[in-house]
Design a protein that fits this description.
With 124 residues, this protein is mostly helical. It has 4 helices and no strands. Helix 2 packs antiparallel against helix 3.
Length: 124
């Protein structure tokens, strides 16, 4: 499977899981649950997109890979700061925030498991 198709698979699964978490928050959640899922899911999805783009640039042939490595470190620091700001300033349920944020990780695990079960390998 081409790397671009794998990224699309991960993002598609992430959005499907995020939609499921949002539906669950609407049905079973309390005050701030929807805001929590949307904030966590938005940060998680943005993190996946940033990782895919930066890592794709780092493995591409070229002489300026170090710039993308620095940007990757800055993205990590920005993610920590955004999570802090969201938890500190948004009126949301933090458990649902974590549930929304977790969908991105579950999408990566699910997509790589799909590749492993099918015996597929990634091509750059």
């Amino acid at each position: 499977m081409a790397a671009g198709r794998f990224v699309a698979l991960v993002l598609g699964l992430d959005l499907a899981l995020l939609g499921s978490a949002l539906a669950l928050a609407l049905v079973a959640g309390g005050d701030g649950s929807v805001v929590g899922v949307l904030a966590g899911g938005g940060l998680g999805t943005a993190n996946l997109v940033g990782l895919a783009w930066l890592c794709g640039r780092m493995v591409a042939p070229g002489g300026r890979r170090w710039i993308y490595a620095i940007l990757l470190a800055l993205k990590f620091a920005a993610m920590i700061g955004l999570v802090f700001l969201a938890v500190r300033h948004l009126d949301m349920d933090v458990i649902w925030f974590v549930a929304g944020l977790t969908t991105a990780g579950l999408a990566v695990v699910g997509s790589t498991s799909y590749l492993a079960i099918r015996g597929m390998e990634l091509r750059l």
